[in-house]
Write a structure and sequence with these properties.
Blueprint: H1 2-25, E1 38-39, E2 47-61, E3 64-66, E4 86-87, E5 90-93, E6 96-106, E7 111-130, E8 136-155, E9 162-177, E10 180-181, E11 190-191, E12 195-210, E13 215-232, E14 242-259, E15 270-271
Antiparallel strand pairs: 1-15, 2-6, 2-14, 3-4, 3-14, 5-7, 6-7, 7-8, 8-9, 9-12, 10-11, 12-13, 13-14
Amino acid sequence: MFNIKRMAVLAALFAGLAGPALAADLPQPIEEAPPPVVEAQPVDVGGWYIRGDIDYHKSTVRGIDYITYGAEPCPCGPPTPVPGSNSFDFGKLKGGFSLGGGVGYKINDYFRTDLTADYWFKSNFNGGTSDSSGATSVEVSKMSALLLLANAYVDIGTWHGITPYVGAGIGGARVRWDRVYDPSPAATETNPGSANWRFAYALMAGASYCLTDKVILDAGYRFTHIQGGRMFEWDASSAGPGFDHGINTHEVRGGLRYQFSGNNGCAAPVVAYQPEPEPIYTK
């Protein structure tokens, strides 16, 4: 009986010692490292930028009127105007290119403003007139302009680096017409062109794309309306002066913006420092 009790005690001691050893030999669960903490970019409100643009535009002249004259009352001055005006039968401007630049300020993630200047290179003009007798005349000229606008934009949001936007601008344009004349070899009629400042406004839509954390590609469409004004002056060999009713322009634009500071939505998120977990040893 004594031997049985001794064997029971020894068996209990053996089980107590072998249990932890056997448990240590079993596979141990490995704790996974926690994911890195992504911190939001510190919001730097506001940021100055500069921009450069190139475009191709197609303009439409909304109509042209000119004054006709009767016989001279005396040799001391120009003829007296006949009441009323005549109109061009048609007038068309061909497409042209422009270069522009500007400086702007990004107020927040959704709103920015800028001041821009665009020079429209000369576009060829072709028109025609006719008189009461049915005689017709071809009229040609060239038009160029300097467009100055103050613009405001709403950036709708940024997805995969692409930011669609809409905008509007208001300002003025200095429109310059070259002389208006009939190119026929026997024609003698010619009128000096006119240059003047006019009211202008624009509506824009487009999208920008982050090339780097500072450089942004901008592409879009702009509609520009320039108020009517004097197109050409009176000349002794012809009628005049003449006035266009305004110019509507459709522009396809592309350019680059460089932002000096602030949050432009292009910078990569900052990953906070996360200490490595303690190594886990298993047998």
